Every structure is written in structure tokens, then in C-alpha cells.
């Protein structure tokens, strides 16, 4: 009986592990990034797999960063890595948007998540539940805002 329980627990663990590892690699590195303006480092610094090089827009209204994945994708999650030095709170209130439209630079696409806050050098995963789109945007609504992103990772489901 004890052997059967252990086997069941082991198989259950394997099944859960297989389900959570069904996401493909980070596809953001295969895309093309642009942003509303550049104060320091260009938009592609957020998809270079080096989390200490960070994009940074100028102070402006509704600063945004956009990833073009070149084709329709089914997005399961987006991971945002915040800066490690000053100003890490600037990301607060940013929105992750996913869709096919470039209307308003892609900032009118459907919202996957709102970033309430990310600590310095922390990475936070946002579930997008299979949202479809070609573009992933990060935008901070409002006046006199800066957008800085150290890394943006985009994962699609392994079965798509």
C-alpha cells in the first residue's frame, strides 16, 4: 500500500512538472523591439538576455515599448525584469498589452496585466492565459512618465 501511494505521488509530481514545463523558450529574442523615444539604450536592450542593460525612454506622455513577434502567437506569460538602481518604482502602473493592431502604436490592444510594482532587479511573471497577438506592448499611461525595462520575456504554449 505504501509503495502504491509513493508511486502515485511520484507520478503526480512528474505530471505537474511536465505541465508547467510545456512552455517553449523565450520567443522575445527572435522579435524586433521599438519604443516611443530613447533616453538611454535602445528598445532591443530589453530582449538581449542581459538583465543589467535596460531600455529607458525620455520623460513623456504615455511612454511605450513594443515587441513585434513577426507573426500571430498565443501568449501564455510575459516576464518583466525591473532595473536594479534608482527609479525602479517608475514601472508602477505600466500595462502589458497584446494584440494585432498598431492603432495608437499598439497601446489600444487588449490588456494582459497591469504592473502594480516590481522591486529593484526583480522579475515578475504575468499570466496572459493564451492571448493572441503579434505585438506585445508595455505602456505607462499618464503625463511626465519614463519607461525603463531591463528584460522582457515572452512565452508561448508548447502545443501551439
UniProtKB/TrEMBL annotation:
Record SMART domains: FTP
The function of this protein is:
Acts as a defensive agent. Recognizes blood group fucosylated oligosaccharides including A, B, H and Lewis B-type antigens. Does not recognize Lewis A antigen and has low affinity for monovalent haptens.
| Organism the protein comes from | Carassius auratus (Goldfish)
Q: In its UniProt entry, what is this protein called?
A: Fucolectin-like
> InterPro entries recorded for this chain?
BG_Antigen-Binding_Lectin, FTP1, Galactose-bd-like_sf
Q: Where is the Fucolectin tachylectin-4 pentraxin-1 domain?
A: 24-158
List the SUPFAM superfamilies: Galactose-binding domain-like
Example GO CC term: the record gives: extracellular region
Its predominant location is secreted
Q: Which GO terms describe its biological process?
A: regulation of cellular defense response; regulation of complement activation, lectin pathway
User: Where in the cell is the protein located?
Assistant: Secreted
Its family?
Belongs to the fucolectin family.
Q: Source gene?
A: LOC113096426
Q: What is the lineage of its organism?
A: Eukaryota, Metazoa, Chordata, Craniata, Vertebrata
Q: Which GO terms describe its molecular function?
A: fucose binding; metal ion binding
Could you describe the subunit structure of this protein?
Homotrimer.
| Annotated keywords | Calcium, Disulfide bond, Lectin, Metal-binding, Secreted, Signal
Give the signal sequence positions: 1-18
Amino acid at each position: 500500500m505504501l509503495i502504491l501511494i509513493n508511486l502515485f505521488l511520484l507520478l503526480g509530481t512528474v505530471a505537474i512538472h511536465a505541465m508547467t514545463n510545456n512552455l517553449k523558450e523565450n520567443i522575445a529574442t527572435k522579435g524586433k523591439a521599438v519604443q516611443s523615444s530613447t533616453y538611454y539604450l535602445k528598445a532591443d536592450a530589453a530582449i538581449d538576455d542581459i538583465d543589467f542593460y535596460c531600455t529607458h525612454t525620455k520623460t513623456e506622455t504615455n511612454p511605450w515599448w513594443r515587441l513585434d513577434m513577426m507573426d500571430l502567437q498565443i501568449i501564455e506569460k510575459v516576464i518583466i525584469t525591473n532595473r536594479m538602481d534608482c527609479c525602479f518604482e517608475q514601472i508602477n502602473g505600466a500595462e502589458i498589452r497584446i494584440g494585432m493592431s498598431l492603432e495608437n502604436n499598439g497601446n489600444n490592444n487588449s490588456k494582459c496585466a497591469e504592473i502594480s510594482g516590481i522591486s529593484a532587479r526583480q522579475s515578475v511573471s504575468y499570466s496572459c492565459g493564451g492571448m493572441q497577438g503579434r505585438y506585445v506592448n508595455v505602456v505607462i499611461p499618464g503625463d511626465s512618465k519614463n519607461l525603463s525595462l531591463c528584460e522582457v520575456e515572452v512565452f508561448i504554449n508548447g502545443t501551439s
